């Protein structure tokens, strides 16, 4: 593969010129978009990922080409890919899990915050050394656009944000080892894995545990994008910065170094149960700073802005989503 430093950095995404026009796959360089329909007729981004090994060199060439480039600002940006499967990793950031442990513990004279934090940290050390990632599934219908409004269902007032890094699969992976897992990742994108907090645990049957189906699968509860940035430009996915602001105030600001299981471990573990297919999303978990931690959950009119950045001015783009009442 060519040296990524010697090629123009780009992303790919899904666009339309108007709300009623058909969607098309586009190559993004800076503030310009090249419609890929001429080179790949009728192909959606998932079709490109189905043939990623042969498509990527073509995209590298097109990134430096002249052609019918369009201004990004003139286009409607959709979620970059329509996945067949969405695998969501839970409890995968140390600070986030420690905060949750404190929040759900009885703190008093006999059990201090410091003790709870130390117990949670020791538990995660054991889990990282001996355990496996914790996954649940999202439905493809949960995908939303990176600039869409998200409707807050009126059956709850406890909707929360969880900005995350998502790995996008570019080569079928089934029962692969960790050391080969990143070879199956085409690139990365941003997701906001929204959660309805009071539906996470079943009150009518506590013994059954968590109910992620109800807590996470409302329509549009996974704003995705704006772009898929190829792995070659991202470098180490374990050294990125995940930041979410709410109405301009920073709520999440954490490094992916805080992950308990890194991207390779997550992809490998998921592949040992199900075949991962091109276009599938493997979510890597939420860093600390959710609304439940801040005591401030989503309200009508709130605007969430999410970015994931890295060294050498790397950016996966900016996601901007407004929460609205039904």
Automatic annotation (TrEMBL):
What keywords would UniProt list here?
Metal-binding
Q: Per the database record, which ranges form the Fumarylacetoacetase-like C-terminal domain?
A: 87-310
Q: Which InterPro entries match?
A: FAH, Fumarylacetoacetase-like_C, Fumarylacetoacetase_C_sf
State whether keyword Cell cycle applies: no
Q: Does the keyword Metal-binding apply?
A: yes
What terms describe the molecular function in GO for this protein? catalytic activity; metal ion binding
Which family, according to UniProt? Belongs to the FAH family.
Q: Name one GO biological process term.
A: small molecule metabolic process
Write down the PANTHER family for this protein, in alphabetical order: FUMARYLACETOACETATE HYDROLASE DOMAIN-CONTAINING PROTEIN 2A, FUMARYLACETOACETATE HYDROLASE DOMAIN-CONTAINING PROTEIN 2A-RELATED
Q: Which domain of life is it from?
A: Bacteria
Return any one Pfam family short name. Answer: FAA_hydrolase
User: What is the protein named?
Assistant: 2-keto-4-pentenoate hydratase/2-oxohepta-3-ene-1,7-dioic acid hydratase in catechol pathway
């Amino acid at each position: 593969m060519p040296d990524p430093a010697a090629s123009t950095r780009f992303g790919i995404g899904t666009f339309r010129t108007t709300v009623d026009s058909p969607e098309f796959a586009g190559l993004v360089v800076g503030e310009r978009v090249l419609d890929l329909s001429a080179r790949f007729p009728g192909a959606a981004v998932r079709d490109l990922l189905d043939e990623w090994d042969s498509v990527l060199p073509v995209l590298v060439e097109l990134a430096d080409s002249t052609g019918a480039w369009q201004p990004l600002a003139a286009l409607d940006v959709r979620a970059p890919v329509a996945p067949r499967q969405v695998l969501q990793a839970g409890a995968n950031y140390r600070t986030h899990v420690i905060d949750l442990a404190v929040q759900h513990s009885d703190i008093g004279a006999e059990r201090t915050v410091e003790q709870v934090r130390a117990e949670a940290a020791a538990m995660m050390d054991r889990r990282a050394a001996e355990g496996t990632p914790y996954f649940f599934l999202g439905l493809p219908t949960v995908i939303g656009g990176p600039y869409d409004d998200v409707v807050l269902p009126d059956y709850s007032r406890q909707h929360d944000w969880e900005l995350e890094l998502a790995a996008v699969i570019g080569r079928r992976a089934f029962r692969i080892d960790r050391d080969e897992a990143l070879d199956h990742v085409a690139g990365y994108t941003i997701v906001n894995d929204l959660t309805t907090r009071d539906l996470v645990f079943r009150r009518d049957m506590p013994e059954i545990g968590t109910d992620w189906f109800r807590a996470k699968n409302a329509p549009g509860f996974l704003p995705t994008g704006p772009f898929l940035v190829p792995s070659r430009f991202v470098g180490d996915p374990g050294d990125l910065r995940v930041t979410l602001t709410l109405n301009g105030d920073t709520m999440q600001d954490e490094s992916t170094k805080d992950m308990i299981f890194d991207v390779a471990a997550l992809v490998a573990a998921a592949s040992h149960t199900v075949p991962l297919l091109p276009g599938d999303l493997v979510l890597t978990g939420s860093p600390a700073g959710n609304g439940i931690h801040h005591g401030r959950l989503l309200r009508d009119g709130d605007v969430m802005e999410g970015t994931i950045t890295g060294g050498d001015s790397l950016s996966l783009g900016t996601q901007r989503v407004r929460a609205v009442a039904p």
